[in-house]
Hints:
Elements: H1 11-15, H2 18-33, H3 40-47, H4 51-55, H5 61-73, H6 85-101, H7 103-118, H8 120-148, H9 157-174, H10 181-201
Helix pairs in contact: 2-3, 2-7, 5-8, 6-9, 6-10, 7-8, 8-9, 9-10
Amino acid sequence: MATVKRAPAGAAVLRGDITKAIRNAVMNELAQVGYGRLSIEAVARRAGVGKTAIYRRWSNKLEMVLEIVSDVAGRAVPLPDTGSFAGDLQLLMMIATKALQHRYASQIIPDLMAEAARNPKIAETLQKALRSHQQAVGDKLVGQAVARGELPADADPELAVDLILGPLYWRLAVARTPVSDDYLERLTELVTAALQAGSSAR
C-alpha cells in the first residue's frame, strides 16, 4: 500500500495563488499601518509566505506597493448604458461613493496622497494610473451622452470626471462627510447643467 505523504504546514498557501495572497496582504497592511510603517516582513507574515517569495516578484517595498496599488486604481469600473446621461451619472456616482467608503480606499488613499507629496515616484505612478482610468470613464460617459444628443459634441470628458469625482473625493476622503441621496441628485443636476452650458460659456 502506497504511503500518502502529508503536506507540510502552510503548503496550501504556497500551492495557491501566492501573488494574490501577497497582494491582499499588502492592501491590508497599507490600510492598517500606512506606507511608512509597512514592511516586507509584515507582508510576508500576513500572506503566509517567506520574504523570498516577495523578493522574487519585487525588488523593494516601493516597487511592490506601486505595482499593486496601480493595478487596483486602474481597474475598470463597469459603466453600462442605462439609456440616459442622468442614469449613467447617478450610477457612476453610486459606484464611486461605495468605492471611496470602502475600508481600503478610505484609509489607503489619503495615506498615499500624503506620501506622494514627499515621493515623486509615488506621485507620478498614482497620477498615471488614475488619469488613464478616469479618461476611459469620461470618454464613455460623455460619448454616450453626445451620441444620444444629451450633451453638445464638444463636451469635455476630462472636465466631466473632475466635476463628478472632485466633490465626492472631497466629502468622503478629505472632509469625511456622509453623502446622501439628495446630495447625489443635486450634484447630478449641477454636473449636467455645467456640461450642457460649457460649450456656450467658452
